[in-house]
Structures are given as C-alpha cells and as structure tokens.
Structure to design on (468 residues):
C-alpha cells in the first residue's frame, strides 16, 4: 500500500526521532532504516530529511556531532536528547489518539 | 562498501550540494553533510548494496534514452504523417485563417485608432493623429501577413505530427459554414471614418508616409500570396493548388477592396450632421481616394433629394459607381497577374529542384 505523502510529511519528525531513539545515526543511515521499516509503503525524497533534522536540532530534540562511521568516512551523527524522547512520547500518544478517533469515526454504524 | 569514488563524480555531486545554499557560515558544514549522504548513496549503488527501485530504474532508463522531445522531432522527420488534408480543405482553412486574422487585426487597429482619436480630440491635436495613421496601418498590414504565416506553418506542423486539425475533422457541411462565416465576418468590422471625424480635420499626409504605407501594404500582400501558395501547393495537386490559391486570394483581396471603398459611404450618412463641416474636410484633405470624397459630397448635399443639385448628385453617383467598378476590376486583374507571376516563379523553382535531383 502506498501511503499518502501528506501523511508521511506530517509524521516525519516522529519517525526520525523513533529511529534515533534506538541508535544514533547519520542521514543516509536514517533513510535506510525508515525505508526498510516502510517496506515499500513509501519512499523518501532523501534530501528532505536534512531540513527536518536541522529543525529538530534547533528545537533541541536532537544534537549532532561529526564522527567516523563504520566505512571510515566522517559523518554527522544525530543523537536524540531527553527533550526529543519526551517529544517522541507525546507525539506517539497524540498520533495514537488520532488514529483511534479516525477508526471510531470511520466505522460504519451497521458493520 | 568500496572506499573509492571517481573524482569526476565527486566533483559533480559537490557542485550539486553547492546549489543548496543557506548562508556563508552554515554552508560548508551543511554541504559536507549533504555530500556525505550522496557519497554513501553512490557507493551503495556501485557495490550493489542499494537495491534499484522501480522509480530508480525508470530514472536511469529515461536518462539513458535521451531527450524525448528532440527524439519526437527526429521521428516525425523520419516518418511521414498519415494525416493529409485535401486541397479543398486546405483552401477553406486558408480562407478562414485569412478572414479571422483580418477581423482580428482590423479590430485591434481600430481600437487603437479609437483611443488615439479620443486623445486627439481632447488634446486638439488632429495632425498628430493623422500622422500616426500610416504607421499603424503599415504595422497592421505586416502583422497580418506575419500572423497568417505563423498560423499556416503551425497547422502544417500539426499535420506532420499526425494530428487532425479542425479542417481535417469537420464534415462537409461544417466546412461550408466556415466558408460562409469567413466571407461574412470581415465586412462586420467598422470603418475608419468615424474615428477620423472624432479626431478633427486632417492635415494632408506627407509623401514619405504614403510611400511607407503603400510599401508595407504591397509587402504584406506579397507575403499573403506566398503564404497561400505555400500552404496549397502540395503534391500531387500542384497545378490545382496554384490555380485555387490564386483565385481564392484574388477573390478575397477584391472582396476587401470593394468593402473598403464602399464602407465610408454608410458611415458618412450618419455622422456629417453631427460634425458639420469637419467630415467633409477630413475626406477632401485626407488620404482617402477621390471616389470616397465624391460619395461624401453626394450624401451631405443639403438640397437632397430635389432640384438641380439632386440630379447633379445622381449623375455623380452613377459616374462614381462606374469608376468604382472599373478601378476595382483593374485592381483585381493586376493582383491576379501578380499572383500568377509569383506562383509561376514558385512552380518553376519546384520543377528546377526536381530536375536537379
């Protein structure tokens, strides 16, 4: 199933935070993990992850530092902060409520 | 993952990153980060760890295949179009195009002139208005010819591309209606005279301006003739095309000429009373032909319709009518001869080229 682009756009911050909550990563790695998790349901325009990452960093949800990757090249790694974890919990909760509301509204009366 | 990346590829990717500019103090850091991503992606493709999606495959196929619009043009040159417009349909199309453009350019010219006339009347500058007229007329004539060429070339291109323009699709009945509309529409465009009267009495147009106007008209007429011949002169109906184009064109030109000469008469009848002596002055001193001036005298005679002046006017009317027919006949004959010369020249070139092959 192809997911609506607007839907993935609205949840992109939470998705990135959830990847970083498992392990600190750099841009390309984050994209790979998201695409693997999506299993073809959506594909990111890869460059668009950076404005989101930079916004999260500005909001102190993540912090970054240059370090050597497994490939031996210097990459900018992103780490989730305490505020980011709070944001992720709050965001997930909100989306959960929203999801429930949609299911409730979409349910047919005689189904 | 191999640790090597081609320097040329690296430079291209860095150039791409440089296009994402934010601000001077941020850019090096951001660009390095973006480049790192691209580098990872490129290396992953080359070592096969990144799988090609359908989207990726399509991008590659499209890029390798080349510029599709350029290819389309090449293919159209290589393959003849299956759409052919018959000679009759081409003729109708050219007639409709000519009439529609005549109306369009006529309305545009007259709208501009109306604006100028109002300005001239308010600013009391009739001589400026009359001096601008030849330029506007020349520009309109040449624009008309250029637009006709543009429309015909565009239709020809559409036919070559295998498309079916209206003159190929339409039934015979609709084509007849198009011919009718094309013949009826141009005379509906209003004449010049009210505008001239609004602007006030004219000064006589200078000889240089009349030469300019006449040259532009002759050039426009020649361009129109060539456009018609080019459009209709399509094998295997070369001879028919030449003859048909010539007849149709001469008919059109005569039609316009007749109307142009007759139209002011109708207008004068309505306006001389309002503008008193101005209209007569404008006619007598302006660049209109003597025929029109005579008509004006007849129409505005205050003793009309009785007495000696009435008969004098009637005689003038009849003699003017005869002169009018003679002049327009001569004009049509002259244009016909001219078109024959042009069409003969084009046909001769065609034959010469075939012989050269």
């Amino acid at each position: 199933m192809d997911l609506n682009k607007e839907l993935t756009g609205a949840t992109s911050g939470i998705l990135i935070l959830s990847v970083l909550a498992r392990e600190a990563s750099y841009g390309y790695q984050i994209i790979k993990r998201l695409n693997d998790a999506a299993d073809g349901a959506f594909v990111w325009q890869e460059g668009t992850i950076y404005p989101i990452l930079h916004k999260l960093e500005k909001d102190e949800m993540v912090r970054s530092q240059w370090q050597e990757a497994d490939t031996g090249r210097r990459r900018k790694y992103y780490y989730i902060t305490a505020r980011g974890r709070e944001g992720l919990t709050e965001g997930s909760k909100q989306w959960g409520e929203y999801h429930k509301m949609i299911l409730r509204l979409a349910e047919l009366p005689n189904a | 993952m191999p640790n090597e990346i081609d320097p040329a590829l690296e430079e291209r990717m860095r150039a791409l990153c440089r296009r994402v500019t934010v601000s001077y103090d941020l850019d090096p850091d951001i660009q390095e980060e973006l480049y790192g991503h691209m580098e990872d992606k490129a290396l992953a493709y080359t070592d096969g760890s990144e799988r090609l999606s359908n989207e990726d495959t399509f991008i590659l196929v499209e890029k390798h295949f080349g510029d599709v619009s350029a290819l389309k043009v090449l293919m159209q040159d290589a393959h003849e179009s299956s759409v052919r417009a018959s000679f009759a349909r081409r003729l109708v199309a050219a007639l409709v195009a000519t009439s529609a453009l005549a109306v369009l350019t006529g309305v545009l010219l007259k709208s501009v002139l109306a604006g100028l006339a109002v300005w001239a009347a308010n600013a009391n500058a009739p001589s400026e208005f009359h001096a601008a007229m030849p330029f506007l007329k020349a520009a309109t004539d040449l624009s008309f010819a250029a637009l006709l060429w543009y429309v015909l070339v565009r239709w020809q291109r559409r036919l070559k591309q295998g498309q079916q323009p209206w003159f190929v699709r339409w039934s015979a009945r609709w084509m007849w209606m198009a011919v009718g509309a094309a013949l009826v529409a141009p005379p509906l465009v209003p004449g010049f005279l009210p505008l001239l009267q609004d602007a006030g009495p004219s000064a006589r147009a200078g000889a240089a301006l009349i030469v300019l106007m006449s040259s532009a008209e002759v050039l426009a007429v020649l361009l129109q003739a060539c456009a018609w011949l080019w459009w209709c002169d399509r094998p295997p109906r070369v001879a028919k095309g030449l003859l048909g184009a010539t007849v149709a064109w001469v008919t059109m030109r005569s039609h316009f000429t007749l109307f142009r000469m007759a139209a002011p008469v109708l207008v004068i009848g309505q306006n001389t009373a309002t503008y008193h002596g101005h209209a007569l002055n404008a006619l007598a001193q302006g660049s209109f032909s003597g025929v029109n001036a005579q008509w004006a005298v007849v129409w505005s005679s205050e003793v009309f319709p009785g007495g000696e002046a009435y008969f004098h006017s009637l005689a003038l009317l009849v003699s003017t009518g005869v002169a009018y027919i003679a002049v327009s006949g001569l004009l049509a004959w002259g244009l016909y001869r001219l078109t024959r010369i042009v069409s003969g020249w084009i046909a001769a070139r065609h034959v010469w080229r075939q012989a050269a092959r």
User: Anything to note?
Assistant: Chain A has four helices and two strands. The interface with chain B takes residues 26-28, 31, 43, 46-47, 50, 54, 71-76 of chain A (CB under 8 Å). The helical segments of chain A are 5-22, 27-38, 49-58, 82-106. The first strand of chain A starts at residue 62 and ends at 68.
